[in-house]
Amino acid sequence: MMKLLLVVVILFGIPIYALPVTSGLQVHFDASNINGNSSQPSNGSVVPSWQDLSGNNQNASASSDPVFQSSGAGSNNLAFIDFDGGSDRLDSSFSIGENDITMFVVFRKDAQDTDAGSANRQIVSGSASTQRVSFYTGGGQTGTPDRTVWAYGGVGSSRNEIGFNLSHNDGNFHIFTGIGDQNDAAQGSKTIHSEAFLDGVLQGTSDRTNASIVGGTLQVGGDNTCCSGARHFNGGIAEVIVFDRALVNDELNNVGSFLANKYGINTAFAVVPEPATYIYAIMMLFFCLRKSLFSSL
Q1: Which residue in 86, 80, 90 sits closest to 27, CA to CA?
Q2: What is the pLDDT of residue 143?
Q3: Among the four residues 54, 116, 140, 173, which has the most C-beta atoms within 10 Å?
Q4: Higher-confidence residue: 209 or 128?
């Protein structure tokens, strides 16, 4: 009976974090499993690389010295990577922007931008082109350091952007969701649609015609292609998930709910139980009950 109780505690008392949507998954970085094998760096140590958990081997290598934090304010005692706004960055070989996209980022904005206003701080970026795909904050190009932006392609020299305000140093991690889809027309003739959500709340949509989207390799925590390295983010990033398609509403909610539950973030996502976890737990409980019953006869 004690063994049975132990199994119940293990199955129901320890959360099992399994991504609920995997179709079209291209990149998955999770600071709770940086090395991809459940081993973790020591707290406060430099992160040399971040292993992609999608199975596509799009691992990211460090530039400068992003720091591993085993837990911190607002992260539900889960790990994240700390970027200091200087030159910390992790670079992947994944080309972002060539296909439709849904991107989730669990992040926390720390100190306010202190640059002279010449650059935006890239949280996750594809390239420095005005027709790039990126998620960034602050800088003189947006006019306010609290402004946060989802950029998906552009027309001519103008970005296709959705902007919203999010204060620095609120001490909380947030879930950003960016969506972009495009037709198969040639560059300069594309029709594109984008949406941006913060903690499950729609921040805006944008539709553009005669647009272009320039792909670039995925960079987490900064962008080294412009402004003498001034495009680097000051804050924490716990998880980055990228799909090569625009997820439908139920899928968006399932992934958003999964992340909200994992990190203890209050969001507008509807709470969704994880069926696979519960079914597995029930099956194991049934097996243990059956074994316990027969062993007592």
Answers
A1: 90
A2: 56
A3: 173
A4: 209
User: For residue range 131-166, what is the model confidence (pLDDT) as tens digits?
Assistant: 788 888 875 454 566 788 999 988 877 888 999 988
Using alpha carbons, select from 85, 84, 73, 67 the residue that is nearest to residue 31.
Answer: 67
Joined tokens for residue 84: 């200091």
Name which of 1-10, 52-61, 200-209 the model is least confident about.
Answer: 1-10
**Pick from 113, 93, 71: nearest CA to 236:** 71
Tell me how far apart the alpha carbons of residues 264 and 259 are, in angstroms, rounded to a whole number: 8
Q: Which residue, chain included where needed, has tokens 């669990």?
A: 106
> Is 268 in contact with 201 (CB distance < 8 Å)?
yes
Residue 253 backbone dihedrals phi, psi, to 5 degrees:
-65, -40
Pick the CATH number of 23-271 from 2.60.120.200, 2.40.50.140, 3.40.50.2300, 3.40.190.170: 2.60.120.200
Under DSSP, the state recorded for 186 is P
What's the burial of 194, exposed, middle or buried (CB within 10 Å: 0-12/13-18/19+)? buried
Compute how many other C-beta atoms are within 10 angstroms of the C-beta atom of residue 207: 10
Which residue's entry shows tokens 């960034």?
136
Q: Judge whether 96 and 242 are in contact, CB under 8 Å.
A: yes
Residue 223, helix vs strand vs coil: coil
Closest C-alpha to 15, from 263, 253, 238: 263
From CA 238, how far away is CA 263, in angstroms rounded?
Answer: 9
